Amino acid sequence: MNKKYIRLDYFQLAHPLSNASVTHWFRLLAENKFDVSILSIPRILFTTLTTFFTFPFRLLENIVYGRRIKNAVPKPPLIILGHPRSGTTFLHYVLSKDPQLAFSSTYEVMAPHQFLTMGWLWRFLYKLAMPSTRPMDNLKMGADLPLEEEFALSLMCNASMMNGFYFPKRWLFYFRKYVLFEDGDEADISTWKEHFLYFLKKLTVKHGNRSVLIKSPGNTARIKQLLELFPDAQFIHIHRNPYEVYVSFERLFEKLIPMIGLQRINSEEVSHCVLECYKGMMGKYLEYRDLIPEKQLLEFRFDHFIKEPLPILEAAYQHLGRENFAEARPFFEAEIQNHANFQQNKYEMSEELKAKIYSEWKFAFDAFGYDK
């Protein structure tokens, strides 16, 4: 059955943080001074109980796999960059079909402490509970489909922009501190690196000697840190018309906050977050883009990609020196065909809003060649 998201999502008990550790869960609550919406109280109580209940399973995974995880050496990943709502998910779905790449599936990302031992259970539960499409754009969802590792990091540590969606009143705090690393605090950077690398090691233990396909919009601003971990990492950056990004990202907030937010914010606060996120993330990307060696980065536009995905992917593989495009092509074709009937959301905006977006994001219009 195709489940629909409605405002009653505020009363649903299930929450991603149910799979966090007890320590991390209470650290997040304390960091946000237990400032939560009354509507979220049942969800918070359920999440608290679940974090205690899953403790033995987290402990079991550490006992069984701890040494293998510690000794794992991930290969340089292939990293998808792009601001939220720039087409990164569609690209992620297609590239994940490359048989030479591993990726983090939804059930692995949502149970990062347990998927090596109890993954079979979480896979079964998510298959039962998940809707068939995403609420913000109707792209397909599923327990086995790729999902960004940012969710996993949010269940492991504070250094994730996803924590801002759980506590949206402090969305910009988490974004600036753990995506832009504005404070310059080496402890923040070390926390993110430690948990990001740990998750990749767990994927390496499970998927063997394959490069991992990584996709998280936050990484668009973390180029410097990613290269410090993996100097030979390869990057594909997909970008989209900024007007479309604005309205689509605003819709993401509208749909996601009732589902996973433990606080409520108004439309003016959402607009401010959207404007500041784009300025910060794309500004940081343009600042550090030149650190990536030329043969390790390819950029293209979302509107070009959806029109001619296979030629663009072939050009990307040639540019990056990946020699298995012919092998991967049939898998890419099948995945692209699965999306043949997908309809993008249509948006309208006032001239006043367009003028505001252009004024705030002119640097990106100029850098990526979009019309005013």
Produce a short descriptive summary.
The longest helix has 22 residues. Helix content is 56%, strand content 6%.
Explain this structure.
The chain has helices at about 20-30, 40-55, 55-70, 90-95, 105-110, 115-130, 150-155, 165, 170-180, 185-205, 225-230, 240-260, 265-290, 300-305, 310-320, 325-340, 350-370; strands spanning about 80, 100-105, 210-215, 235-240, 295-300. By secondary structure, the chain is an alpha/beta fold. The longest helix has 22 residues, at about 185-205. It is globular. It starts with about 20 loop residues before the first helix and ends with a helix. Residues about 1-10 have low confidence and may be disordered.
Task: For the structure shown, list the relevant keywords.
372 residues, alpha/beta, Rossmann fold, 5-stranded parallel β-sheet, 17 helices, globular, disordered N terminus
